[in-house]
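Late entry, fe (ii) ion complex.
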Amino acid sequence: MVTKEENERMTLVAPGTPGGEMLRRYWWPIAFSAEIKGPRPKLVRLLGEDFVLFRDGAGALGLIEPHCAHRRAHLKHGRVEQNGIRCCYHGWVFDTKGHCLEQPCEDPVRNSKDRIRMKVYPVQDAAGLVFAYIGPQPAPLLPRYDMLVHDEGIRYVWGFRDHCNWLQDAEQACDPVHLGWLHAGPYPIYANKKMKFEINRRPWGIDYAFEVPGVPDQNVGNVVFPCHNRFASGRAEQALGTRQNMLFRTPVDDTTTDNFFITLYITGDAQKVTKTETPPEQAHRGPWIPTERGIYPPGDEAWWGVESMMQDRMCLESQGLIHDRTLENLGGSDAGIAIWRTLVRDSIDAVAAGKDPFGVIRDPARNKVVEFGTKMHTYAPPLRPLPENAAA
Ligand code: FES
Ligand SMILES: [Fe+2]
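Prediction complete; structure with ligand written out below:
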């Protein structure tokens, strides 16, 4: 039974909240790499705070506090130049390290720009996404998840926004049995079937393996702390066949969560292509599919009447902006959710005690590629192990 206080402790993300402090110990995707270019910066919101993201003329990413050090004009209106971002009000320029390079209205002999320092945050590209870290220094390592490293196929990078709290998204990933009902339309092999499943704790979170009568072999998926889902899929509408996916869920604020997908089609001919767009079966609406709370595109008329990829959002948003866990009744099929809440509580307690929370990696020797073994029965086999791991 979750109390009101526990629910708030686990779900709220702002700075200074127990959950927010815990979530600040991880890297989060905040944008597509391909969109961060040219003269216009991007306003991004992460864990209830605003930042401005840009890539300077030399290709370096910068994630900077939003208001200019001079008189606080917003840098989202600024212009990105060769060496940094120029504030629109009086032209001060800041580089990706937070130094002030120019104060064009000031007397140069005073050299006052050297005393100015803007707050900047670690940021890096990986597999077509921009990842940011806004917690205390030193930053941990970005884990080497297989989908950030494998590229032998066609990789699509795309996403959309859920209008609800991040923990609802995490708990959905821990709940494989919903496939037989919510996704009965796109997954007719699972429709209305009771699955036999097991859930195991793993160094990154959990994995689940389930079997369904009449379907060969197991479906193995993974949930990666704090909020990500690694799964193979073969929805009925997938024009290019089965695919491997890593779905990162980024808490934007208490009631908004961004879904960043990396979807890889194994083509067998060693293509190495990253496309920032939705996969073909999603009618090229991307890369960022606009969503509105409570509005779901029609589809799958035989079951719920909602388009396949928006079915999860429909359920998660319908639980409420922040799901009230004091009112629910968990069953045996919710075993993964119970484990996840233990990980969240333990991680919050660890941070409060001055320790690293679950799964944080700091030692480069421990940051081996994470081979999840994710598969969808015999239809989508696991990714081939990378040579560096095969030799280990
Ligand atoms: S407020 Fe930014 S340069 Fe003056
Ligand atoms: Fe789902």
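The mean pLDDT is 94. Will revisit in the morning.
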